[in-house]
Amino acid sequence: QVQLVESGGGLVQTGASLNLTCTTSGFSFTDYTISWFLQGPGMDRESVACVDRRGASDYSDSKKGRFVISRDNAKNTVYLQMTDLKPEDTGVYLCGALYMRGLEYAFGEEWYDHWGQGTQVTVSS
């Protein structure tokens, strides 16, 4: 059974940091690009960070320099380190798994094969 389980969300103040974790099971982790998406209140889901099978990463412009994505293939886990959080970072963070495609596809949610349920991040001003 395929599972992606996000954790680490919470309520923080502007400027704080949070570390999110996406723990996966039930599929061949190293065959997948893994991304973090943000579902903001009343907003479309947007990709904020992605890491491909080789460990190369990319970020949305609004998160570049503040977020760092990494993966641990031995633990089938992806991490998102978020710093200098802003109110516009508020929303549900979901991880998605993209089979055998690289970063050029990673920002399009329609390509994804598996999703987690998400973890809520709220940044107060």
Roughly how many Å apart are the termini? 40 Å
How big a fraction of the residues is strand? over 45%
Mean pLDDT: 96
Query: How many strand segments?
Result: 11
Q: Main beta sheet, described? A: 7 strands, mixed
Helix content: under 10%
Radius of gyration: 13 Å
Instruction: Please give the count of helices.
Output: 0
Q: What order do the helices and strands follow?
A: EEEEEEEEEEE
Features:
single chain; 7-stranded mixed sheet; 4-stranded antiparallel sheet
Would you kindly provide a written description of the structure presented here, covering whatever features stand out?
- Strand 5 and strand 6 form a beta hairpin.
- With 125 residues, this protein is an all-beta fold.
- The N and C termini lie far apart (40 Å).
- It has strands spanning 3-7, 10-13, 18-25, 32-39, 45-51, 57-59, 67-72, 77-82, 91-99, 114-115, 119-124.
- The strands form 2 sheets. Strands 2, 4, 5, 6, 9, 10 and 11 form a 7-stranded mixed sheet that branches. A 4-stranded antiparallel sheet has the order 1-3-8-7, with no helix packed on it.
